[in-house]
Queue: 2 jobs
Job 1
Amino acid sequence: MHGMMNGTGMCGGFFGYGFLWIVIIAAIIAIIVWMRKGSNTTNQSQSSSSRPLETLKERLAKGEITEDEYDRLKRKLEQ
């Protein structure tokens, strides 16, 4: 009983450990967000570099450009 009376009893211990768990959980969430953000950047750079070529292929398939125009534009994109 004496430990509970001086303010360091169950409430002090609970809030102390609760704060520690909050910090640990926040750190884990921050690491997960950081890792996902890094993987998204990689995916976007790969996606953005192939998208113009995909658009060019679509335009050729739709008949909007000729094969000669396709070849010329493709070479330009690959430079």
Note: The chain has a mean pLDDT of 76.
Job 2
Amino acid sequence: MRRTRSLRTPLLAGDGPLARIPPVLVFLLVIAVFVTGVLVRGVLGAGLLALLAAGVGVLLATTWPVLAPVQRFGRVLVLGVLVAVAISVL
């Protein structure tokens, strides 16, 4: 039987400054930046969404070795959709 990892266990070991930020706060910040980018539209909105996409790309590259193939596919798909939305608001 396959053992599942606890959702509270960090993907990467460490106790850096980002490890102390509450996940709910990060989630709300990402939602706020996304909604702002979509509502503002134009170059500024696309820039906000591109900044978000860059952050997702960095997180994806950092966690790539510890992700299962299906998790990699899902995260690359989310990144692609985010880039498509950024292009569409131009």
Note: The radius of gyration is 15 Å.
